[in-house]
Structure formats: structure tokens, C-alpha cells
Amino acid sequence: MNPSPCRLLEDYLVHDLQEADQAEFLAHLDHCFDCRQTVSEQRELDSLLVQSIGRLEPIPSRLTKRIERRLKVRQQRRFLAVGMVLVTTAFGILLLCRATIDSWHRSDPPLPEVLQGPTSQDSPIVVVTFPRSADVVAIREKTDSPNITFIWVYSGRRALPVPSSREVGRP
Ligand SMILES: [Zn+2]
């Protein structure tokens, strides 16, 4: 007997599924009320977090410009040093942590892993992943610049109470 696709729910929510498992889980969603409801609640929560970021901590308007300028200077230096004809577009990521300094120091969460990804124009040059033990939720916020994306990082995601199926009135 095959294990239930419900087991993939947690990994789906943190975008940690391989392609085949993702397809299996998406097909499963059509038939499983519990998983569908949990995914829906997670999306709502993500949406609320994004809204609250916009309201509480707007990214300073000049920050994006400053980062772009620095990227440009770095690109020019690289261009001169290597003598390349084409300089690939740089992709900047600034990790903004909303957690208090105290909580970071107390728990010392593992550092995110920064990978060099494919360098085509369509995909990001830098990929940031957090180990599962990092206990954070990260929200991507695009800017006007195609080269800059901010990532808001909130610690203690797993500290949020997860309602049991009875508490939210599931059958
Ligand atoms: Zn399910």
C-alpha cells in the first residue's frame, strides 16, 4: 500500500518538494479537503505577512538605488579586471531580519546556504535556501529593479501554534 500523499504537505508548504512529489501532491489536493484547507490557510498567512511588511517596514526608497549603484561599480571593476566584453547582470539579495537581535543571538539559527545558480537572464543568479532547522519563514519582495530582490526573514515560524483538525472544525 502506498503511503498517503498527505505526508508531503509540510514539504509542499516550505517549497521543498522534488518535481515528481510536487506533481503527486498537487493531484492529491483535488481530493483531500484537509490538505487543501491547510494550504489555503498557509497562503492566507503568507499574504497577510506580505501585507504587514508593506505597511510596517517599507523598504527605504533610496536603498534600492544605492544597491544598484554598488552593483554597477562592482560590475565595472570586474569588467576592467577581467577585460570581458559582456558583464553578466548581477543579482543582489539583501537579507533583512525582523527578529530581534536578542532572539537571533539566543538561538543562533543556522545560516542560509547561498548557491550559485544558473546564469541565464531568466533565472536568478543567486539562490538562498534555509536548512529546515533554521526555523524561519522567508518572504521574497521584488523591487523596481530586476537585479534586486529583498528577502524578509522571520524567525520562530515553527513556534506558531498549529491548530489541530478538531480546532478548525474539520470533519
Ligand atoms: Zn491530504
Anisotropy-based shape: elongated
Largest sheet: 3 strands, mixed
C-alpha end-to-end distance:
24 Å
| Fraction in beta strands | 15-25%
Ligand inventory: zinc ion
How are helices and strands ordered from N to C?
Answer: HHHHEHEEEE
**What is the SS-derived class?**
alpha+beta
The overall strand count is: 5
Task: Give a short summary of the structure.
With 171 residues, this protein is an alpha+beta fold. 40% of the residues lie in helices and 17% in strands. The longest helix has 24 residues, at 33-56.
What does this structure look like?
With 171 residues, the chain is of the alpha+beta class. The chain is built from 5 helices and 5 strands, in the order ααααβαββββ. It has helices at 9-13, 19-29, 33-56, 61-82, 101-107, and strands spanning 92-97, 113-116, 126-129, 136-142, 148-155. The strands form 2 sheets. It has a 3-stranded mixed sheet with strand order 1-5-4. It has a two-stranded antiparallel sheet with strand order 2-3. Bound molecules: zinc ion (ZN). Zinc ion is lined by residues 5-6, 28, 32, 34-35.
